[in-house]
Amino acid sequence: MKKVISTLIISAAAIIVGYGALALPFHLFTNLTGMQMRILFVAEIITYFAIFSAFFLIKESRCEKKKKERELRERHNRRVSERQNELKGINLNGLDIAA
Can you give the pLDDT of all 99 residues of the chain as single tens digits? Predict the structure, then answer.
């Protein structure tokens, strides 16, 4: 349920922002000169690129964090199993003294 609500909120926000991004140049078309329109267009492209880069970097950092946690967990499990194997093999006068 939480995922559905968050998806609806993100979709609504994307629609509103998209409409605003497309409507702004059309409403300003009659008021701005050609050079001002080019500057506005370049500013929009830079803004889109910055937002895309931010989302991409956040996603990559999350993936990297998960990978690091998985490696640490695997290393811990390997050390635990090695320690258990070492304790199993302790024999003293034919008796296994491992707990």
Answer: 888 898 899 889 989 988 877 777 777 777 878 888 888 888 888 988 998 899 889 999 999 999 999 999 999 999 988 887 777 666 666 665 654
Q: Count Cβ atoms within 10 A of the Cβ of residue 40 and give its class: 0-12 exposed, 13-18 middle, 19 or more buried.
A: middle
pTM of the model: 0.49
For residue 99, what are the contacts with CB-CB under 8 A and spacing of at least 6? 87
- Coil, strand or helix at 96: strand
Distance between CA atoms of residues 43 and 20, nearest Å: 14
